[in-house]
Structure formats: C-alpha cells, structure tokens
Write a structure and sequence with these properties.
The chain is α/β, with parallel strands linked by helices. It has one domain: TIM Barrel (Alpha-Beta Barrel). Helices cover about 35% and strands about 15% of the residues. An 8-stranded parallel barrel has the order 1-2-3-4-5-8-9-10, surrounded by 6 helices. Strands 6-7 form a two-stranded antiparallel sheet. Helix 8 links the parallel strand 8 and strand 9. Helix 3 packs parallel to helix 4, helix 3 runs parallel beside helix 10 and helix 9 runs parallel beside helix 10. It is globular and about 70 Å long. The termini are far apart. It binds erythose-4-phosphate and phosphoenolpyruvate. It comes from Pseudohongiella spirulinae. InterPro entries: Aldolase_TIM, DAHP1/KDSA, DAHP_synth_1. This is Phospho-2-dehydro-3-deoxyheptonate aldolase. Keywords: Amino-acid biosynthesis, Aromatic amino acid biosynthesis, Transferase.
Length: about 350
C-alpha cells in the first residue's frame, strides 16, 4: 500500500529534552552569582546610557569547546579585568552556538563531544555549568543568541548578547532579542550593509508576539516588552573593513537617520581583520586613536582571543586537540590579549571621563 503520510518525511527522530525549569533547578543561579549577573547587565546599560564613561570589551574565544581551558582563560581574564577596571569593563565571550557559512561544527551545545553524536541535553548542561562557574568568579559573560529556544536554558547567566551577521536580518532573532534581559549588539550583515542592523534595532525596541517555549517546556506564545538596549556592532563585510573613522562617521549618520541609538561597538575580528588574528591589535589601536581624537560614539570593542594563537581543525582523534587553541576562527593568544588591552586602558585612562553624550 502507498504511504500517504504528508509530514515528517525528512524527520529521522524527535527526542524530548529536559525542560528549562528542570535544568535551572539542577543548577540554580542564586546568591552572589545572581548579584554578579544583575550588576554586570546594569553596568553595560550605564555605559550605553553614558552614565558610566568606561568602554566595555567583549573578549574571549571564538567558540568554547573545552570547558577546562575556558575556565583557565576566565581566571586570567578576571585578573586582567581587575587591573583595567577604572577604564575598561571586561566581559568574556562564552560562545556556545556557531552560525556556519555552510556546514561545520555548530558549537558546544549542538555537539558537545565533537563526535557527531549531537548530545544537545549534555551540551546545555555543560554550558550552564560553565556559565555558572564563570559568573561565580565575578566575571560577566556574553554569548551569541542563535538558537531561539536555548535562551530559556541559559540567558539568565548572560550580561551581553550578540546577534550575528548571518541573523541580524532574521525576524525570529529580532523577536527573540526584544525579550532578552541583556543589552544586545546587532552585527552589520556579512556584505557589510548596516541597514539590516538599523532595521533590527527599530524592530527590537518594539513589543512582539511569537511562538516559543515556556520554562516548563510547553510550546507557548511569548509576549515581549521590547528591548531598549540595542546597538550596532561593526564587523566589516565582503567589501572590506568598516572600523575606520570614515566608516564610523557614515555609520553614525545612518543610525541617526534611522532614529536609533548611535552607540557603536567595533568588532576587531571577522571581516575587520580579514580573519587574520594578528591584525586585531592594529584595529584596536586604530579605535583607541579615534577615541583620543574625539570620537563619542564608540562604546565598546570585541576581540577574539584564546590561551594560544591561531586555530586548529577538529582532529579525528580528539586526543590530538591542542590545548587552548580555537577550533573555529583564529584568535590572538593570551600574551597579546593582555598587552593590547592594557595598552588601550593606559591610553584612554584620562580621556574617557571627559567624553560627552553624543
Ligand atoms: O565567528 C565565527 C565564524 O566566523 C562564523 O561562525 C562562520 O564560520 P564559517 O564561515 O567557518 O562557517
Ligand atoms: C559569528 C560571529 O561573528 P559574525 O556574526 O560577525 O560573523 C562571532 O562573533 O562569533
């Protein structure tokens, strides 16, 4: 007999996952860790509102694949954060979800053991545990909000979120961002276009109604209030970098015309460094110079950094993985991270408090 089924033709299986509520009950955010997330979010709001003259620096690995190395990195970053805290507010990149140009490893949550077993529940547990460990150290964490369901499991631990260049134009990501509790940075598109980010910021400040899940794991209609803390992140594009003073001035104009915030973060990596990590410090220097020359719109920077330089392919035998080296985009190493951030802090120490609200 002919199979007349009309759905699930390309579905192999659907597995039920533990609920967000159950995961949070196993690993609750409470006490000083909760206070640390709340205070980090507020600090970033204050920077965006120009009540705090510091810049915030989102820095860390392109992706997390080894929680132990991530904690080693976090301990170093926490120490550096304390040293530069008068001038710079440091937030660690704790990126678990990678948007791929075509195919590739999609991050710790999707395939935590990097062996195509896709143990997503384990990925969520590992991710939540690592975030809790990091925020318990008093270090704020940031991530790319890529999957529309995972925020229910993890976003309570996040101080700043990014929407990536491949999803800034997506309605799903704009709706989700309108309900996030943290500030959100929208990257310009991969083609370098800023209009998608301007449109995203207009959208995200409004309330939305959309399909999602509740903490109890039920399919639900989510009603959001709108997120007042969105800003753009310039990350360059296929036509080249856009971190320089001319592109920044053009971006300010486009943002003003769109009636959205003129706060700008510069991503020193991605197309702004032509994916060559050694260029990131030069971009950071240029941004520092722009601020010394009077720029008022740049409120933050992003760096892709790890314990060791460069990147590596995921080997067939995972024992061959090199410690502290990215398995996605190439990163600067710890020594360069420390040197370039300290240099920026020293140069901007006396200048930032005198900046005016644009
Ligand atoms: O930041 C990470 C990468 O640039 C992004 O995930 C795209 O990676 P891919 O082009 O290697 O797939
Ligand atoms: C994927 C990232 O960046 P972009 O969206 O700018 O490519 C990232 O920051 O990890």
């Amino acid at each position: 007999m002919t199979d007349l089924k009309a759905d699930d033709l390309n579905i192999e299986a659907i597995e039920t996952l533990m609920t967000p509520k159950a995961l949070k009950a196993q690993m609750p955010l409470e006490g000083s860790a909760l206070e640390s997330v709340r205070s980090a979010r507020q600090t970033i709001f204050n920077i965006l509102d120009r009540k705090d003259p510091r810049l915030f620096v989102v820095v860390g690995p392109c992706s997390i694949h080894d929680p132990e190395a991530a904690l080693d990195y976090a301990a170093r970053l926490k120490k550096l954060a304390e040293e530069v805290q008068d001038t710079l507010y440091i937030v660690m990149r704790v990126y678990f979800e990678k948007p791929r140009t075509s195919v590739g490893w999609k991050g710790l949550i999707n395939d935590p053991f990097m062996d195509d077993t896709f143990q997503i529940e384990e990925g969520l547990k590992l991710g939540r545990k690592l975030l809790l460990d990091i925020v318990s150290m008093g270090l704020p964490a940031s991530t790319e909000a890529l999957d529309p369901i995972s925020p229910q499991y993890l976003q309570d631990l996040i101080a700043w979120s990014a929407i990536g260049a491949r999803t800034t134009e997506s309605q799903t990501h704009r709706e989700m961002s309108s309900g996030l509790s943290s500030a959100v940075g929208f990257k310009n598109g991969t083609d370098g276009g800023l209009m998608v980010a301007v449109n995203a910021m207009q959208s995200v400040s409004h309330p939305h109604r959309f399909l999602g899940i509740s903490k109890g794991g039920q399919v639900a209609v989510v009603r959001t209030k709108g997120n007042p803390y969105a800003h753009v992140v310039l990350r360059g594009g296929s036509a080249g970098p856009n971190y320089d003073s001319v592109h920044v001035a053009q971006a300010e104009e486009e943002l003003r015309k769109g009636g959205v915030s003129t706060n700008i973060m510069i991503d020193c990596s991605h197309a702004n460094s032509n994916k060559d990590p050694s260029i990131q410090s030069l971009v950071l220097k240029d941004v520092t110079h722009q601020i010394l020359e009077g720029n008022q719109s740049i409120i933050g920077v992003m760096l892709e950094s790890n314990i060791n330089f460069g990147n590596q392919k995921i080997p067939a035998d995972l024992k061959e993985l090199k410690y502290g080296v990215s398995v996605t985009d190439a990163c600067i190493d710890w020594a360069e991270t420390e040197r370039s951030i300290k240099e920026m802090a020293a140069k901007l120490k006396d200048v930032l408090p005198q900046r005016q609200t644009p």
